[in-house]
Amino acid sequence: MLTLSDRILVKEVRNDYLCLCYNIMHIIKNEHEAVLCNCNLQDPNLEDIYERNYIITFAYLMGQKSKERKYANNLLSDKFVNGEVNKQIFLNPDDPAYEDRNRLKSGREYFCPDFVIHTSHSNSGSNYEGQCLIMEAKTTSNLKQDDFNWDLFKLNLYVEKLDFDTAVYLIVNTTLSDVKKMIRNYTYWHSDKLEIPNQKNRVPHIYFLIQEKVDEMPKIYELIIERTL
Predict the structure, then answer these.
(1) Beta-sheet pairing, 131-138 with 166-172
(2) Interstrand relation of 205-211 and 219-227 (parallel, antiparallel or unpaired)
(3) Residues 6+ apart with CB under 8 A from 162
(4) How far apart are CA 165 and CA 23, in angstroms?
(5) How many domains are there within the chain?
(6) 172: domain range?
(7) Using CA atoms, how far apart are residues 49 and 219, in angstroms rounded to an integer?
(8) Which residues contact 141 (CB under 8 A, 6 or more apart)?
(9) How far does CA 203 lie from the centroid of its chain?
(10) Which residues touch 77 (CB under 8 Å, ≥6 apart)?
(11) What's the rounded Cα separation, in Å, for the pair 219 and 37?
(12) What is the pTM of this model?
């Protein structure tokens, strides 16, 4: 059984793709203030639009980075940089995640992560070498537990079923203490792959990029869980 560590989130993690995402958040903060300010407006009718604008800006800036030589010749070489790409994940009724999925979003088989860095648009077959980074994002100042649960569940599935090395939950306008509370209230832990090597002999990780306020710097945290018998 997997449970939370007493330390839940650990700061100052080193991961090349994660640091690249951090840099993009920094650029948005400094050069695209209007995008962040819109996210800070508490208008429930427009929250989805503001969030989508943030993701579109994020994906555009990452695409620009992919054209820079130091990234094009290394991290982003031969990679697709996409926002909102459909991923289909079949869950058998005997899969531990099947019942959890139905409790959260009944019958959902198609998932649309907010951002992906990968080498192929297909998740068929057993070769997941190109599954580099996958992200869910929330920019609302009123992040609800149910929405948090669904996003974190999807990130677990991306790691477990699609063999992504790095899964990221990007959160703007929510405090670290509130994120920790929501993690502790999350009850859908089932993936052993969060602590054992995947098909590429690498241990996958779930990270949080948290920017508590629009005028503050984002911070990087790694989600820490542990096994209990």
Answers:
(1) parallel
(2) antiparallel
(3) 87, 89, 123, 128, 131, 134
(4) 19
(5) 1
(6) 2-227
(7) 24
(8) 39, 40, 42, 173, 174
(9) 16
(10) none
(11) 19
(12) 0.84
Chain centroid to Cα 41, Å, comes to 23
- How is residue 192 written in tokens? 């052993």
* Residue 204, token pair as written in the block: 């996958």
Task: Give residue-wise pLDDT tens across range 18-59.
Answer: 888 999 999 999 888 788 776 766 667 778 888 889 999 999
Structure tokens at 218: 């984002």
H or E stretch including 44? none
Quickly tell me which residue has 């990780």 as its tokens.
205
Q: Rounded mean pLDDT of the chain?
A: 78
Backbone Cα Rg of the chain: 17
- The length of the chain, given as a count of residues: 229
Residue 220 and residue 18 in contact, taking contact as beta carbons nearer than 8 Å: yes
